[in-house]
Design goal:
It is a single chain. By secondary structure, the chain is mainly beta. It has a 28-stranded mixed sheet that branches.
């Protein structure tokens, strides 16, 4: 019987706005013994036994500091005269707030005064930035939505220089309760059984609960997991050489997202005053996909944007159930020990009412043809880049089926040599979805001749507008390529003779792809496999191992082995995203639209702004993920060879080579990617833009020439990836003797791969996959050293034996674990906190492009890498908090200025020419650029043992993690931003005082740290 409690406290929490509480308390006990009724049941206490344990954890931890840019009261009321457009070299940049109506009339807004300011909203102040939006142009619905945010803490200048004006840090409570019960029963000496049950309850309660996406809000939520399971085993000793064992188990796993009523009310359209309905409405604020009537997804594109966001399963209600059966038999026969067995498993994972991020509607106010230049202002004007709404939600339930069997022989071939020979068989059963809720794309079934047509962007002329009603002054419209007209003269798909608005451009001409999208297949329909993957038969996985006592004295052993392991347990996400593919879920979209008429008289977004006749005005579908029919199971080839030697003093030395080689690993690539440079050959003739900033034809048009027309992005999961792990593992172990034990391990290793997970992307079109994809794995650590020790301090009673010395000075122990590790690999990224994510390609977010210059420097593809022009590594003497990598080692790939400089140069005059990367030059930097800060950590414990009588003992522990409170850096900002001349735009620049950095998080600086010292106290009672 044991009773114990732990309490853990922090020493410091770092330089945060205020100190947050860290508490980790564990209370628990366990009790066990015989089950008996004197004189009636198990009187001799040899038949039945039980064990029960319970642990209760009270865990409070501080959340990380979060930064946001929230709208100010001035901005919510249309006044942007104190709003800036970020900063450059430590100085604020003015915001030129464009009036989309004036821009459409041919005016410009690229300056605060003069001719180039005629397209701007008026600025009655003398601030030289921003402007004021007239009151009748403000959409009251989005005004109300912008009022849900907390008030800013810092002024506009601070926001421009640092990228945020509001910060929050709070605590999260994570209580856990776990119970375990085991009952053993001995039927006979040869027949024994036990049943074991466990129940687990966890909570993650707070603003940053696991599935709470709106972590700018003070409203908390609770993410809960419940995990009961029960299993039993029967062991039958048939005879002294033959044993049979059978195990049956059942497990359940549930996750729920519990939202307090107040938190839910704060997100309801009716509460906020957001009175727009939905396309597929079932009530004023609700739809089949949004029965609660919550606010839509909203994104603004400002730095540290406070987006309205949800988990796509909101409100979350997931359940998983697993049944397992296994049986094994062992037979001793001379020098052989034979084993054979079978294992079967069936697991179902239910995700109820899951959908896409369009289930309550989704507004994107980041840029677009009608943009003002500021995301908050776009929302007030009602001018969205895109609006998306899903047709329905589905119940996703993949079923995993596993059937494996094996045979094995452990053979003592010689007195000093033992061999292990075995083989495991795995049935290639794919995961299958219940109710056919998975769809994928089959290239062989795609017919471009029947792919849906898209409305085209054209200049209106007498031919294409004959018979159409065109508003005076209108020069552009959407053309139906099937009729050659910019209107519908029959009135079947649009009001009779009314010109198609430009918002229809790049949307499907009705009926679009209809109920059966070209090339899309549904699981188990029309002869397609139920699991979307063909049955692969039986996989054979041989294993071999040996142990050789080299000298026959039992002190030196050579061991080795090789084995193949298949992975029949696909993650639930392999089929998880395929339930949101068309035609299971369609997402209706509109681009460059508006929710407000612009004159304050009537809204244009009234729940029916899109014609929802089947198939009408859909945009080409972005596929969540695709699964190829010929996909195969991932596998790993594992091998080891090591020697073990007793070196005296009760100490054992192990040295071994351990290798693992992954084959057919999952990886993602875009099947419908627009090739590099493809956009450059297709400038929109109806809206050409300028020489320095042309407007390209939309990608969805280009895909008709270079990919699969009618579809957008098509990430496909293919099992063609490889990985490798090589290591030299050394271990020294000294078992407890003479009051001391210690051990140490050193691992020297190298892990390489093409991507990190099944959902990680690999380059498809950017030249050599070996160059752009292959490199150190995110978990690679070249060196890891760990030392552990336990020392019993000498007893004072040996010299002065009395009750006081025995109580106060006997029973003390010191223990510790010291760990040193190389740092994690660093990869250039699109986020300052994306360390460990390999294969990231840079994009427009890594560029500082003048408003009059082209920002699409590559014209397709997956983005770019930098050119490496120096050594990114800094010596230990030069490396510090401010510069952990060399920022001057990177520049942009060669940029071509088509009018003033020859190809291949880095000379650019922004705003005067169309600038782009040199043909085929995407940068030469590999995925890996260096290694982050290493780890050197000391954890120590002090124990005091008290003996209380014959049957009771008490142990007190004081434990310290990072006992010396040593500052240990972790992350590094690997997010470079470049000017078009190739120079860094976010390097370290100091303000006029020569001390304060001009930007908060510059490229190459350390931007996070590991935990400070944490203290833990424990009391354990045993009786």
């Amino acid at each position: 019987r044991d009773w114990f409690t732990f309490e853990q406290k922090d020493k410091v929490t770092g330089a945060l706005p205020h100190k947050n509480q860290y508490r980790y308390e564990t209370f628990g006990y366990n009790v066990g013994g015989p089950i008996f009724i004197p004189g009636h049941f198990n009187a001799n206490r040899e038949k039945a036994f039980f064990f029960f344990s319970q642990e209760i954890l009270k865990n409070t931890q501080p959340n990380s500091l979060r930064k946001f840019t929230v709208p100010t009261d001035r901005e919510i009321n249309g006044d942007y005269t104190q709003t800036f457009n970020g900063s450059s070299n430590g100085a604020t940049k003015p915001l030129f707030l464009a009036d989309p109506l004036l821009i459409a009339a041919g005016k410009k807004c690229t300056a605060a005064t003069g001719t180039n300011s005629q397209g701007c909203f008026p600025n009655p102040s003398s601030t030289g930035t921003g402007g004021v939006i007239p009151a009748n142009r403000l959409d009251p619905n989005f005004q109300n939505l912008l009022r849900i945010y907390p008030k800013p803490m810092f002024d506009s200048t601070f926001q421009a220089l640092n990228g945020y004006n509001y910060q929050v840090v709070d605590t999260q409570t994570r209580p856990v309760r776990q119970e375990i019960l085991r009952v053993d029963y001995n039927f006979t000496n040869n027949l024994k059984a036990f049943v074991r049950g466990m129940n687990l309850h966890t909570h993650n309660n707070g603003v940053q609960a696991t599935t709470n996406k709106n972590n700018w809000s003070p409203d908390p939520a609770d993410y809960t997991i419940t995990g009961p399971n029960v299993g039993g085993t029967i062991t039958w000793i048939i005879n002294p050489t033959l044993v049979n064992e059978v195990t049956v188990g059942w497990a359940e796993w549930r996750e729920h997202y519990v939202v307090p009523q107040k938190s839910l009310n704060d997100l309801l359209r009716s509460t906020v005053g957001f009175n727009y309905g939905m396309i597929f409405a079932t009530g004023q604020f609700t739809s089949a996909t949004n029965p609660l009537g919550i606010l839509p997804f909203v994104s603004y594109g400002v730095s540290n944007s406070p987006n309205v966001n949800y988990d796509n399963r909101f409100p979350l209600n997931d359940n998983a159930y697993t049944w397992t059966y296994s049986e094994g038999i062992s037979k001793l026969w001379g020098n052989h020990q034979f084993k054979a067995g079978i294992q079967s498993e069936r697991a179902t994972y239910w995700q109820l009412h899951t959908g896409t991020n369009g289930f309550p509607g989704n507004f994107n106010f980041s840029g677009g043809a009608n943009s003002s230049g500021n995301g908050f202002a776009n929302a007030l004007l009602g001018n969205f880049n895109s609006y998306t709404e899903a047709t329905k939600n589905v119940n996703y339930a993949p079923v995993t089926r596993i059937l494996e069997w094996y045979v094995q022989d452990t053979w003592k071939a010689l007195p000093r040599l033992t061999l292990d020979l075995g083989v495991r068989f795995t049935a290639g059963l794919p995961q299958i979805p219940r109710q056919h809720m998975a769809a994928t794309f089959n290239q062989s079934m795609y017919n471009p001749a029947v792919s849906p047509k898209l409305f085209q962007d054209v200049t209106i002329n007498g031919t294409n507008s004959a018979g159409c009603t065109v508003k005076a002054g209108t020069t552009r419209a959407a053309l139906n390529p099937l009729t050659g007209k910019v209107c519908d003269t029959t009135g079947t798909i649009f009001p009779t003779n009314a010109a198609f608005p430009t918002t229809r451009i790049v949307q499907f001409v009705p009926l679009g792809y209809g109920p059966n999208p070209d090339g899309m297949v549904i699981s188990g329909i029309n002869g397609y496999p139920q699991g979307l993957i063909d049955f692969e038969g039986v996989f054979v996985a041989p294993r071999f191992g040996f142990a050789w006592d080299i000298f026959g004295d039992g002190k030196t052993a050579l061991r080795g082995g090789f084995g193949v392991n298949f992975n029949p347990r696909q993650g639930a996400g392999v089929l998880g995203d395929l339930d949101s593919n068309p035609p299971l879920i369609d997402n209706f979209q509109q681009f460059d639209g508006s929710t407000w008429s612009g004159n304050g008289t009537s809204p244009v977004f009234n729940g029916a702004f899109l014609d929802t006749t089947v198939g009408k005005f859909q945009s080409p579908a972005n596929i969540s993920r695709l699964l190829l029919r010929n996909s195969t199971q991932p596998r790993a080839y594992n091998t080891s060879l090591g020697v073990q030697r007793q070196i005296g003093f009760g100490t054992v030395l192990d040295v071994a080579y351990v290798g693992s080689f992954g084959r057919h690993m999952g990886q993602l690539s875009d099947l419908n990617q627009v090739p590099y440079g493809a956009r450059f050959g297709f400038i929109d003739p109806a809206n050409p833009g300028t020489a320095s900033k042309p407007t390209f034809i939309a990608d969805n048009f280009l895909r008709y020439f270079s990919g699969y027309g009618g579809y957008g992005n098509m990430p496909v999961l293919n099992f063609t990836g490889n990985s490798s792990y090589h290591s030299l593992q050394t271990q020294v172990t000294h078992r407890f003797s003479r009051g001391m034990q210690f051990g140490g391990v050193w691992t020297w290793s190298k892990a390489m791969d093409y991507n990190e997970t099944d959902k990680s992307n690999v380059a498809r079109n950017a030249g050599s996959p070996q160059l752009y994809n292959y490199g150190p794995a995110g978990y690679d650590r070249t060196h890891i050293v760990a030392i552990n020790y336990l020392v019993s301090l000498p007893k004072a009673s040996r010299w002065w034996d009395n009750a006081f010395t025995r109580t106060a000075f006997d029973g003390w122990q010191v223990a510790g674990i010291t760990r040193f590790s190389a740092g994690a690999p660093l990869f250039l990224s699109t986020s300052s906190t994306a360390n460990g994510n390999s294969n990231t390609f840079l994009g427009t977010g890594n560029l500082q492009v003048p408003s009059g210059a082209n920002s699409d420097l590559w014209g397709g593809g997956e983005g770019f890498r930098t050119n490496l022009i120096g050594n990114p590594h800094l010596s230990s003497g030069d490396r510090n908090y401010f510069h952990y990598i060399n920022p001057n080692a990177f520049t942009l790939p060669d940029v071509v200025d088509c009018s003033t400089a020859p190809p291949g140069t880095n000379i650019v005059i922004p705003g005067t020419a169309f600038c782009h990367f040199a043909n085929g030059n995407f940068g030469n930097t590999k995925s890996y650029i260096g290694r982050g800060p290493g780890l050197g950590n000391f954890n120590m414990s002090l124990f005091k043992n008290f003996k209380v009588g014959e049957r009771w003992s008490i142990q007190f522990r004081a434990e310290a993690y990072n006992v010396f409170n040593h500052a240990q850096f972790d992350g590094v900002n690997t997010n470079p931003k470049f000017n078009l001349d190739g120079t860094l735009a976010n390097g370290l620049v100091l303000q006029a005082d020569g001390i304060t950095p001009a930007v908060a998080d510059w490229f190459g600086r350390v931007n996070s740290s590991r935990d400070p010292r944490i203290l833990q106290f424990a009391l354990r009672i045993t009786f």
